[in-house]
């Protein structure tokens, strides 16, 4: 029997183990924020991979955003060396999940198996992908113990909040340098027949308008910061949003709506802070002297970050010319440049071949509308040979009743395993 057939048979035989592993991971509620149970899930992964012969490191990202004694930012990196020198294939999955939200009909941390689907927060994004990569590696080792190079599997913190306590921290310390790692696969849920080459750029900023506090019955004695912000939002509605809709990209971004530039008003806060949940009184009558919005601007490979920033500054300056006493501050919160791996990159060609072999169809090439940890591997690690590939439907991420299909995980595990064969099973 060919080695590839033996590998697929081995993965099929591990079906129940794959289900149980996914359920175990889902039942550890690694909510971020604030960053709960990171050490627990890292220790679970460590114990599993030590049993498979991996050397394991637990790494705390001291001093990164969110890291504290109550919520330490833990990561796990496991490495299995082959019998001969060769290249390293690294599977990187984030361990954190977003808030549950409302609207669930299943237990968000129950890991229920219903009609071939495993339900839970993080099922597709991305504990199902993590489980598939572990099973793929273990099956590969079972059928091909005499391999070249090395395999790494990591579980990293805080991808949902920027990845600074996870992949960024590790990349700064050389864990994703091209000398150590040559191929990276991130099992994000982009559908099992798709290869994600990269992502759009993002620029987060906070705009604050200023006013003057006064009694709410005499607003003419004050200056309402919320009204100033309303003028800013009106200018965006009339001029910026239509302009962004005209900017299109040649990047194969999915879904179709994300092939244009976008702007989201992420939050708005004006006037008095809301009281505690148990406070039942009324607010005091005051003219708000501050209003803040956080904007989330997603931009294209064809755009320059300087132009993205200038669009917002121009709007604020235009409003300043029109409104009396208009004062504002603009503060950058976060920036990530767009990235896209070439379709001729070795890891892309390898995974595309494995998809065709497993599913009998050509791989589709896509770009993610939002960023993920490839940004740090590219920018800090200087490693370009990186893609996202994993099981799960992208549209289910962060939704109620999130799930991952068992068959999708099995097929993705086969693609990952065949990719290991192609890259490491060399004479």
TrEMBL record:
All residue ranges annotated as the Peptidase M20 dimerisation domain in the record: 198-322
Metal-binding found in the keyword field: yes
Cofactor(s) this protein requires: Zn(2+); Co(2+)
Gene3D superfamilies, sorted: 3.30.70.360, Zn peptidases
UniProt entry tagged with the keyword Hydrolase: yes
Top-rank lineage group of the source organism: Bacteria
Coiled coil: 298-336
UniProt keywords, alphabetically: Amino-acid biosynthesis, Cobalt, Coiled coil, Hydrolase, Metal-binding, Zinc
Stored SUPFAM superfamilies: Bacterial exopeptidase dimerisation domain, Zn-dependent exopeptidases
PANTHER family: ACETYLORNITHINE DEACETYLASE, PEPTIDASE M20 DIMERISATION DOMAIN-CONTAINING PROTEIN
Family assignment from sequence similarity: Belongs to the peptidase M20A family.
The name this protein goes by in its record: Acetylornithine deacetylase/succinyl-diaminopimelate desuccinylase family protein
Species for this entry: Roseibium porphyridii
């Amino acid at each position: 029997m060919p080695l590839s057939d033996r590998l697929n048979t081995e993965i099929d035989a591990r079906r129940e183990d794959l289900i149980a592993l996914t359920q175990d991971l889902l039942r550890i509620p690694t909510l971020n924020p604030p960053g709960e149970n990171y050490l627990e899930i890292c220790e679970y992964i460590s114990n599993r991979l030590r049993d498979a012969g991996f050397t394991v490191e637990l790494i705390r990202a001291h001093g990164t955003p969110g890291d504290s004694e109550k919520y330490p930012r833990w990561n796990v990196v496991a490495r299995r060396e082959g019998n001969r020198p060769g290249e390293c294939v690294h599977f990187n999955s984030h361990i954190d999940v977003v808030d549950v939200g409302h609207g669930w009909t299943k237990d968000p941390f129950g890991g229920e198996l219903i009609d071939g689907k495993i339900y839970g927060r993080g099922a597709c994004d991305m504990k199902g992908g993590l489980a598939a990569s572990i099973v793929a590696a273990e099956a590969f080792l079972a059928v091909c113990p005499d391999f070249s190079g090395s395999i790494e599997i990591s579980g990293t913190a805080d991808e949902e909040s920027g990845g600074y306590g996870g992949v960024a921290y590790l990349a700064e310390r050389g864990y994703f340098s091209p000398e150590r790692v040559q191929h990276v696969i991130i099992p994000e849920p982009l559908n099992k027949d798709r290869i994600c080459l990269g992502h759009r750029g993002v620029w987060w900023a906070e705009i604050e308008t200023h006013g003057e506090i006064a009694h709410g019955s005499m607003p003419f004695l004050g200056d309402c910061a919320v009204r100033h912000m309303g003028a800013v939002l009106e200018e965006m509605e009339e001029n910026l949003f239509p302009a962004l809709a005209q900017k299109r990209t040649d990047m194969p971004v999915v879904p179709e709506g994300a092939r244009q530039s976008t702007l989201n008003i992420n939050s708005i806060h004006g006037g008095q802070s809301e009281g505690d949940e148990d406070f039942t009184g009324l607010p005091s009558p005051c003219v708000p002297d501050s209003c803040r919005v956080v904007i989330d601007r997603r931009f294209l490979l064809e755009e320059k970050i300087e132009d993205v920033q200038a669009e917002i500054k121009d709007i604020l300056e235009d409003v300043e010319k029109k409104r009396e006493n208009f004062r504002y501050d603009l503060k950058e919160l976060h920036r990530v440049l767009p990235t896209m791996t070439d379709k001729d990159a070795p890891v892309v060609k390898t995974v595309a071949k494995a998809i065709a072999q497993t599913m009998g169809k050509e791989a589709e090439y896509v770009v993610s509308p939002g960023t993920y940890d490839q940004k740090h591997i590219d920018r800090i690690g200087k490693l370009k040979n990186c893609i996202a590939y994993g099981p799960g439907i992208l549209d289910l991420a962060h939704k109620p009743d999130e799930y991952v299909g068992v068959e999708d995980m099995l097929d993705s595990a086969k693609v990952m395993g065949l990719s290991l064969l192609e890259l490491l099973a060399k004479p």
